[in-house]
Amino acid sequence: xxxxxxxxxxxxxxxxxxxxxxxxxxxxxxxxxxxxxxxxxxxxxxxxxxxxxxxxxxxxxxxxxxxxxxxxxxxxxxxxxxxxxxxxxxxxxxxxxxxxxxxxxxxxxxxxxxxxxxxxxxxxxxxxxxxxxxxxxxxxxxxxxxxxxxxxxxxxxxxxxxxxxxxxxxxxxxxxxxxxxxxxxxxxxxxxxxxxxxxxxxxxxxxxxxxxxxxxxxxxxxxxxxxxxxxxxxxxxxxxxxxxxxxxxxxxxxxxxxxxxxxxxxxxxxxxxxxxxxxxxxxxxxxxxxxxxxxxxxxxxxxxxxxxxxxxxxxxxxxxxxx
Length: 323
Known about the structure:
- The chain is of the alpha+beta class and 323 residues long.
- 25% of the residues lie in helices and 30% in strands.
- It has 6 helices and 18 strands.
- It has helices at residues 2-16, 62-65, 77-81, 116-136, 162-181, 306-322, and strands at residues 22-28, 32-37, 49-53, 69-72, 88-97, 100-110, 139-140, 152-157, 185-192, 195-200, 221-227, 231-232, 235-236, 240-249, 255-258, 267-269, 271-272, 284-286.
- Strand 14 and strand 15 (255-258) form a beta hairpin.
- The longest helix has 21 residues, at 116-136.
- It is globular and about 65 Å long.
- It starts with a helix and ends with a helix.
- The model is unreliable at 49-78 and 212-238 (pLDDT under 50).
């Protein structure tokens, strides 16, 4: 669930600060889960509901509730899952309109009721609250704003940190690969009862020049950037396939490949497709143009149609790239 927020933060920075990389801070204690990042601000579109789509037009039950799709502004996919942590999310950040910035605005999003009509009304009230906060905020000159400070913040009130800790434990496994695949992330720092951990990307070097003992968390992670020739089985195709593998040094200073963790997603579209843990491949595949399933838990492979055919073609290329 944390990766959805990370993806949103990265996309937000890429759109408005193309020459900057986002730094992310995740803080977890018994009562709060706080996600904050720098180089971000809110605009009118991010303070409005872009889409509310339900399986049913009438009241939905607990099962159907999980099938709802609710997208709020640029919060995007991160908001689709984070309600599992808390039904009420408190949000604060800078606001911009017509090149005018305002100090931190604060509002909350309450999704505690699964009734569609009540849910829509609750979200509408959230943005009324945000609008009032904007009107009462003080204008501030852009040159007086420290954008490198984590101004954008999402706070989740929780009764217990067990669920959030499970998400963070999964994050430890997939985040190093995300930093390899997704450009635009400077660092991710996590503070919890498990301790303080910071993830950042080192300068990339050829495998025989990279000291294995300098990798974060003692996980030796390298990537192979393989460009397949423009001809493949007599069909014109040119793609960049990125594969990440874990390695370690063994006797006589040789390098051995480490088997992938069974709980690690094996397919990434820069960010992991949670649900692809059982996909059989001796490494982690990243291809930004895979066609994923609607649930984003894998890719179409065995179905008829263009999407599955293209995905299969890329997987075959990945096999060549791996060897």
